[in-house]
């Protein structure tokens, strides 16, 4: 099947289309229904009647955008009408929800009259928190947006105009920097004089480009003042008429710094590119075929050609999804009355800044592991970069507040946490820990410091103020990697081959001389990053340690266990995973260390896992799991669990509820706990699950992760005398940063 056939099947498979309405409140009981509708719904209705602003408090209006179109200029399909354009509008709704958690009603209007459209949308204002105009032909689109913006007290945004302007504007800021050119000095040529081109030209002026340096061409050639006096040019084109000789696109491009194509494919050749100024910037954004293809433009010159297109199969895709979801998110959250120029500029600047940051591994993998590093082939972020939400959105919200468009204000730091929570519970939970870490950063040894991911993680730890990383590894290799990725920081490096590690070798020998290690072996082992890092932590020259990225878990765990050992109140270490679901967090133990724990181990693991949960601001409720419920099976396996429960319940140090043995569904289903086992110590479902052995723990957490859709953070070691965490082989940079944050908070407790 080809793409068209696949798309048809995608859209018609049941249920047809791409969107549905989902409830956000419980509707399981008669009381739920009486609250949702009659008679309970009368109460919010009366409150809104007294104060219409209460609609934002009692209804979904504040998170609801209307995507409005007449189908007169749909994608590259032209005037196909409102019904044929509906799949595109539904698609727009999918993007709003996927990228910014904004709900959408798509509204297709069967009218070719601008006045009728304006009147209809104005009448719908009570329904929506914002209006996104879509696929409306020029020049009517300018008038529709202008008049609706004046009439409505909610944000109005025509994405076809401003989306391309904002995204390409961000690209222009970075491209000019790379080409070492000032925005105000750029000579810019536009091919196309429709809605996107005119809006982009105006926006470039807002960014700093001189209007006198913009040359706009339509199908008849350069738009000049001479043409404007003899032809019927609409007033939007006339705004960019220049007092220069008439000519065609080739004439306009000669000596230009920037070409912006928003017209048709294949109208620019290599000779035209060769006629441009040094290190030209070419944004060939016609879809699906650009004005000049990527390979031809790059091959036309020997200097740097900075190229962007509208296509995803080439670098630097100008994709509007980088803009509208996040602009509306910021506007909605401060109850903005409009989306003004200051907010658009803030969005472009934030996108430009984000492109200069190190790119997460998850984004690199999503795009086929191609290198993504600030430079000619990476001047704008990728659409699937999750950081766009909490980089661009706060910038837009702040600009709305500063420009007077906002009706409410926000605390930026708290707002970023709220936005991160929209991306998943794990981000919300990690933000708690990372904020604690930033309050008092500690020294964290990264034992495999020569690894690229460790170096990039170290950079992020320094940039975000989470920790003071110490990289163990080859100093030259670390410096080469730092330069390769353009990481502007000066890491602390301990090179075992060149550093003076004699004192550490002495200490290792002292600790292990009666454990089978000779003096000579100690001198050799201290060159191993895991042993060196462990001794540094044990001697107090570092506060915590991370390892395991390139080692098997047992071999990575062995050195810190031998050197640092367990805490004074612990005889055993254990591995814990935090699993985050949409509205629930669960800590699973032990998942990595103890194969067949006895009563003593189970008791310790439960106590330490409860303490770990509190570092995430989670009040623990522990269930000790089995295939038995409270004595329904009596054998050595269930008896050891019951003994552990009894000890924990009698232990004054344990100030959280613990119960068991119980089956997994008993532990996590409220109805079972309260109805069938009302005697249980757990008043609410458990959030700490202690498994009876390593086999069950490892299987259980992986099933929850894969089939239950949970995100996993860990494994986190508990019970160690000093903070040590062992990564999983192949973990990403964000996993390293997260565990480093946990290690810092552990060290703060010390």
Automatic annotation (TrEMBL):
Pfam family, any one: malic
Residue ranges annotated for the Malic enzyme NAD-binding domain, each copy included: 161-401
Keyword Metal-binding belongs to the record: yes
GO biological process: malate metabolic process
UniProt entry keywords in alphabetical sequence: Metal-binding, Multifunctional enzyme, Oxidoreductase
Xref: SUPFAM superfamilies: Aminoacid dehydrogenase-like, N-terminal domain, Isocitrate/Isopropylmalate dehydrogenase-like, NAD(P)-binding Rossmann-fold domains
GO molecular function: acyltransferase activity; malic enzyme activity; metal ion binding; NAD binding; oxidoreductase activity, acting on the CH-OH group of donors, NAD or NADP as acceptor
Swiss-Prot/TrEMBL cofactor(s): Mn(2+); Mg(2+)
Keyword Transport in record: no
Domain Malic enzyme N-terminal per the UniProt entry, residue ranges: 16-149
Domain of life according to the entry: Archaea
Gene3D superfamilies hit by this protein: 3.40.50.10950, Isocitrate/Isopropylmalate dehydrogenase-like (3.40.50.10750), Malic enzyme, N-terminal domain (3.40.50.10380), NAD(P)-binding Rossmann-like Domain (3.40.50.720)
PANTHER family: NADP-DEPENDENT MALIC ENZYME
Family named by the database record: In the C-terminal section; belongs to the phosphate acetyltransferase and butyryltransferase family. In the N-terminal section; belongs to the malic enzymes family.
Name assigned to this protein: NADP-dependent malic enzyme
Species of the source: Haloarcula sebkhae
């Amino acid at each position: 099947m080809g793409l068209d056939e696949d798309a048809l099947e995608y859209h018609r498979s049941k249920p047809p289309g791409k969107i549905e309405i989902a409830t956000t409140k419980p509707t399981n009981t008669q009381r739920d229904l009486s609250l949702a509708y009659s008679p309970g719904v009368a109460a919010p209705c009366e409150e809104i009647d007294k104060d219409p602003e209460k609609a934002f408090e009692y209804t979904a209006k504040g998170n609801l955008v209307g995507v409005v179109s007449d189908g007169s200029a749909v994608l590259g399909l032209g005037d196909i009408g409102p019904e044929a354009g509906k799949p595109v509008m539904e698609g727009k709704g999918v993007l709003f929800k996927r990228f910014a958690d904004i709900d959408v009603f798509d509204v297709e209007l069967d009218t070719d009259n601008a006045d009728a459209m304006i009147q209809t949308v104005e009448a719908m204002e009570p329904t929506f928190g914002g209006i996104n105009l879509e696929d409306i032909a020029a020049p009517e689109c300018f008038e529709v947006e202008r008049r609706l913006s004046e009439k409505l007290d909610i944000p109005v945004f025509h994405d076809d105009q401003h989306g391309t302007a904002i995204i390409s504007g961000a690209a222009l800021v970075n491209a000019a920097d790379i080409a070492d050119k000032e925005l105000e000095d750029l000579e810019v040529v536009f091919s196309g004089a429709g809605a996107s081109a005119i809006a982009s030209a105006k926006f470039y002026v807002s960014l700093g480009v001189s209007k006198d340096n913009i040359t706009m061409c339509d199908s008849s050639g350069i738009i000049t003042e001479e043409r404007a006096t003899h032809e019927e040019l609409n007033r939007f084109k006339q705004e960019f008429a220049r007092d220069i000789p008439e000519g065609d696109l080739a004439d306009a491009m000669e000596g230009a710094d920037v070409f912006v194509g928003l017209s048709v494919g294949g109208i620019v050749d290599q000779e035209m590119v060769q006629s441009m100024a040094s290190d030209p910037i070419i944004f060939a954004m016609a879809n699906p075929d650009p004005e000049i293809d990527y390979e031809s433009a790059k091959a036309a010159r020997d200097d740097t050609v900075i190229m962007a297109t509208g296509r995803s199969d080439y670098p630097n895709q100008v994709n509007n999804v980088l803009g509208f979801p996040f602009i509306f998110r910021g506007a909605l959250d401060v109850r903005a009355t409009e989306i003004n120029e200051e907010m658009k500029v803030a969005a472009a600047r934030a996108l430009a800044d984000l492109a200069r940051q190190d790119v997460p591994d998850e984004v690199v993998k999503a795009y086929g592991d191609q290198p993504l590093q600030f430079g000619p082939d990476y001047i704008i972020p990728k659409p699937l970069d999750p950081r766009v939400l909490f980089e661009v959105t706060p910038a837009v919200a702040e600009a709305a507040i500063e420009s007077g468009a906002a009706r409410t204000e926000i605390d930026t730091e708290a707002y970023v946490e709220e936005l991160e929570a929209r991306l998943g519970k794990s981000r919300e939970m990690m933000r708690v820990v990372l904020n604690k870490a930033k309050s008092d950063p500690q020294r964290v040894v990264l034992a495999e410091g020569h690894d690229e991911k460790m170096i990039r993680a170290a950079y992020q730890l320094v940039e975000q103020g989470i920790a003071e990383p110490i990289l163990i590894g080859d100093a030259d290799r670390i410096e080469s990697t730092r330069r390769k990725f353009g990481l502007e920081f000066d890491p602390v490096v301990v090179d075992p081959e060149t550093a003076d590690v004699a004192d550490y070798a002495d200490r290792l020998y002292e600790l292990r001389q009666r454990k089978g290690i000779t003096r000579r072996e100690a001198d050799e082992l201290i060159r191993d990053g895991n042993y060196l890092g462990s001794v540094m932590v044990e001697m107090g020259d570092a506060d915590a340690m991370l390892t395991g990225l390139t080692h098997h878990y047992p071999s990575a765990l062995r050195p810190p266990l031998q050197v640092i050992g367990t805490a004074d109140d612990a005889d055993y270490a254990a591995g814990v995973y935090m699993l985050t679901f949409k509205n629930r967090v669960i800590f699973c133990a032990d998942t990595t260390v103890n194969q067949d724990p006895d009563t003593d181990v189970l008791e310790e693991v439960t106590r330490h896992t409860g303490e770990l949960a509190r570092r995430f601001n989670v009040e623990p409720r522990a269930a000790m799991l089995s295939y038995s419920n409270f004595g329904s099976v009596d054998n050595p396996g269930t008896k050891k669990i019951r003994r552990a429960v009894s000890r924990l319940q009698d232990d004054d140090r344990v100030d959280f509820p613990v119960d068991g043995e119980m089956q997994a569904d008993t532990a996590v289903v409220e109805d079972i706990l309260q109805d069938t086992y009302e005697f249980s110590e757990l008043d609410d479902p458990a959030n700490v699950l202690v498994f009876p052995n390593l086999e069950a723990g490892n299987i259980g957490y992986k099933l929850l992760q894969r089939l239950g859709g949970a995100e996993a953070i860990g494994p986190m070691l508990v019970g160690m005398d000093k903070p040590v965490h062992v990564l999983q082989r192949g973990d990403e940079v964000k996993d390293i940063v997260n565990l480093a944050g946990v290690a810092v908070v552990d060290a703060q407790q010390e």
